Amino acid sequence: MNLLHNDTIVALATPVGEGAISVIRISGKDAIIKTDSFFEGKARLTEVKTHTIHYGNILSDSGEVIDDVLVSVFINPNSYTGEDSVEISSHASSIVVKRIIEELVTKDVRLAEPGEFTRRAFLNGKLDLTQAEAVADIINSRTEASLRGARNQLDGILSKKIDSLRAELIHSTSLIELELDFAEEDLEFVSKDKVLGEIQNIVNEIEMLLGTYSFGRVLRDGVNVAIVGKPNVGKSSLLNYILKESRAIVSEIPGTTRDVIREEVSIDGILFKLFDTAGIRLTDDAIEKEGVERSREAVKNSDVVILIDEVVNGIPNELYNKLTELIDEERIITVLNKLDLDNSMLSRRASQRRIEAPDRGDELINETKYIGSDIKISVKENIGMNDLLELLKEKSLGNNSFTEKSAVINNVRHFDALSKAKRDLEEAVISLNNNLSGEFISVNLRGAEDSLGEIIGKVTTDDILNNIFHNFCIGK
Ligand SMILES: Nc1nc2c(ncn2[C@@H]2O[C@H](COP(=O)(O)OP(=O)(O)OP(=O)(O)O)[C@@H](O)[C@H]2O)c(=O)[nH]1
Ligand SMILES: [Mg+2]
Predict the structure, then answer these.
(1) In a domain, 332, yes or no
(2) Ligand nearest to the CA of 288
(3) Residue from 227, 228, 232 whose mutation best tests the ligand 1 pocket (most atoms within 8 A of CB)
(4) Residue 339 lies in a domain
(5) What does the DSSP assignment read for 310-360?
(6) Beta bridge partners of 337
(7) For residue 207, what is the domain's CATH number?
(8) Can you tell me which atom of ligand 1 is nearest the CA of 255?
């Protein structure tokens, strides 16, 4: 997509369909004049001040009134895109909207591509790239935490951080290049230690940002949680409890859930995508086998797995080991359910993971077959459920101290660019320590500078832009 940036574009900015109002957005050098050419109101739009609203009729080519509307006028550079822009608020009828846009198209106004308004805002310096990405994140956010995270990015918290790292880097590079200009042979750095310290400092900061990635992703995309275990242990009951509705069928017949059931719920503003799976056991039943296969897939795609069994059984070691082949041990929560059936009810409270004999008859105790659990609960009697939810949040967010107010990265583009910058800087440190020629060091520093610049859009290519704006909706 190689778009002209000075033509005039139009798109519906509000959802398609019936409603109170639709907003049609027009931007580009002829936005005002073209709108004025089919608008009949008290004032000529070409003569009004910026940021004013005007009531009038939109007329068809033949002079028929299509709709009465409010037109907002924004004169460059004081608009979202930085260009002359107009917003027509019409009645929200798909026919009205269609006719207004068609009229504009006959006046050589082009239909906008997805994200083209925001792309222009970026090209005109209204937003940097992380802010443009945040606009898409705000639109897509489905929980309060993801909204706050995106809002903070749009406010420029991440941009400022990257910008200041880049400025520090440019400073170090200039020190090195200054030496290059003066030194003939071996660089006798007056400032070698200083530069090393500066670069190391930037590396540390980058590492910290990289460390926020999983938190940022959780904020933005939510957490995938698979609930797995043997049949009949209460997986679907747990799902229903968390959702606060009887979504999955619960029965005393083992093998009730055959397929993976996927549901979403927001807990404290974080989106959890829950996958209730078919009970895992060896079986000849073809459907059940397929269900078990799907459970495996759900586990592979999850961020956290809840492995559940009954207090009278214990967590089966074999199943636990199988899970660890698919997912990191750190991300498994082991839960023993049906604590209400345990006569002794020894600990009503959550017990931390420890190797313990399962609570079953002496003759069945076999420490190699069972392992201890993170927590004991009863879904039925509501015992330990809050502790379980807390544990789930803790596993999902990790025990880090970031908040939505910290500079946080949440997208793979930022992660890759920062990783590359870090690699370049680490090479520069090695070169410095080995007293290699300043030219080597300078190349690495410049590479890192470009990577940081890519994040905020100081350095950019059409490919990067196309990739980003391609995911936007039309009209944004
Ligand atoms: N006593 C007691 N029964 C429970 C508890 N939680 C679930 N159950 C019962 O255990 C049985 C199985 O529950 P489900 O939630 O269907 O179990 P599941 O793990 O989804 O089973 P499958 O889908 O067959 O793999 C049902 O009769 C539930 O009522 C609990 O905490 N205590
Ligand atoms: Mg079930």
Answers:
(1) yes
(2) 1
(3) 232
(4) yes
(5) ETTT-EEHHHHHHHHHHS-GGGEEEEEE-GGG-TT---SS---------SS
(6) 310
(7) 1.20.120.430
(8) 24
CA distance 36 to 253: 71
| Nearest ligand (C-alpha, residue 252) | 1
Query: Which residues, by Cβ under 5 Å, contact ligand 2, an ion?
Result: 235-236, 256-257
Whether 240 is in a domain gets the answer: yes
Domain range for 315 is: 221-397
Do 271 and 374 fall within a single domain?
yes
**Cβ of 240 less than 6 Å from ligand 1:** no
pTM: 0.76
- Cβ of 338 closer than 6 Å to ligand 1, yes or no, is yes
pLDDT tens across 237-258, in order?
999 999 999 999 999 998 888 8
> Tens digits of per-residue pLDDT, 197-232?
999 999 999 999 999 998 888 888 899 999 999 999
C-alpha span between 209 and 442 (Å, rounded): 23
Let me know if 4 is exposed, middle or buried by CB neighbors in 10 A (0-12, 13-18, 19+). Answer: exposed
Tokens standing for 85? 């822009």
At 38, the amino acid letter reads F
